[in-house]
């Protein structure tokens, strides 16, 4: 069921109050929004720019939300897995390659931390309790996973997953895994900035626009109206 017309992007922004118009009958209501706690372990980084890899279902919505986070300078949709052999959307969609649809987030750690990005990820982007699927998309390529790029990211990610488990924000166990980073292959051009370029696409309206609305409503101080390209 597509979402109502008001969920379109208007003037580069979204009305947070639209979150209240979601009804149980809408597909978007199948995914739960929570306000995950701030990470207890979130060490400061001294580098000018850092990179993080997140897999949380279809990369359109994951990219769409992260592109509106203050401090994020670039978001690329792609496939988390070895750099060789090359893969494409059709091969990854078979669910037999071991790759995951993912996004590569480049960010300024003086503005937004890795821990804060994880907090956004688990609050409004992914359901960490669904094994090998998100929303209507099923298969190992749609699993929820973190791919730390540094030992500190690895330590922070594992600590945060343990913290979320103790918080019991969901009715089912968390199945999101921390996986070893082996590489990242950029997806085809038509997948990049898909939400920003196709806000009226049926899938986007039903499954991804609600995540964007929830992000603005839940984290207004992190919201930037102009999407990072």
How do the SSEs run, as a string of H and E?
EHEHEHEEEHEEHH
How many domain units? Answer: 1
Helix content: 25-40%
Unreliable spans = 1-30
Rg from C-alpha positions?
16 Å
The CATH C-level class name: Alpha Beta
CATH 4th-level superfamily: Peptide methionine sulphoxide reductase MsrA
The CATH architecture name reads 2-Layer Sandwich
The number of distinct helices, counting runs of at least 4 residues, comes to 6
Content-based structural category: alpha+beta
Remind me, CATH topology? Peptide Methionine Sulfoxide Reductase, Chain A
Sheet with the most strands, sense and barrel status: 6 strands, mixed
- What is the rounded distance between the termini? 29 Å
What is the arithmetic mean of pLDDT? 88
Tell me the total number of β-strands.
Answer: 8
Shape: globular
Strand order of the largest sheet: 7-6-1-3-2-8
* Residue fraction in strands: 15-25%
Structure description:
It contains six helices and eight strands. The radius of gyration is 16 Å and the shape is globular. The chain has 229 residues and is α+β, with helices and mostly antiparallel strands. 41% of the residues are buried.
Can you tag this structure with a few keywords?
two-stranded antiparallel sheet, 6-stranded mixed beta sheet, disordered N terminus, alpha+beta, Peptide Methionine Sulfoxide Reductase, Chain A, 229 residues
């Amino acid at each position: 069921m597509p979402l109502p017309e008001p969920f379109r992007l208007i003037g580069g922004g979204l009305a947070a109050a639209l979150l209240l118009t979601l009804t149980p009958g809408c597909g978007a209501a199948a995914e739960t929004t929570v306000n995950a706690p701030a990470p207890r372990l979130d060490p400061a980084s001294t580098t000018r720019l850092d990179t993080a890899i997140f897999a949380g279902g279809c990369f359109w919505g994951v990219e769409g939300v992260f592109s509106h986070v203050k401090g994020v300078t670039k978001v690329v949709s792609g496939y988390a897995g070895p750099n060789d052999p090359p893969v494409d959307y059709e091969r990854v969609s078979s669910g037999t390659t071991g790759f995951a649809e993912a996004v590569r987030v480049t960010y300024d750690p003086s503005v937004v931390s890795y821990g804060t990005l994880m907090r956004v990820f688990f609050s409004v982007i992914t359901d960490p309790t669904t094994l090998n699927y998100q929303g209507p998309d099923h298969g190992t390529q749609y699993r929820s996973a973190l791919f730390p790029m540094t030992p500190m990211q690895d330590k922070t990610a594992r600590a945060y997953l343990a913290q979320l488990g103790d918080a019991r924000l969901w009715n089912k166990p968390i199945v999101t895994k921390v996986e070893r980073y082996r590489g990242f292959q950029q997806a085809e051009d038509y997948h990049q900035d898909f939400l920003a370029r196709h806000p009226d696409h049926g899938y986007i309206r039903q499954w991804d626009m609600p995540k964007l609305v929830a992000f603005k409503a839940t984290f207004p101080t992190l919201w930037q109206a102009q999407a990072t390209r």
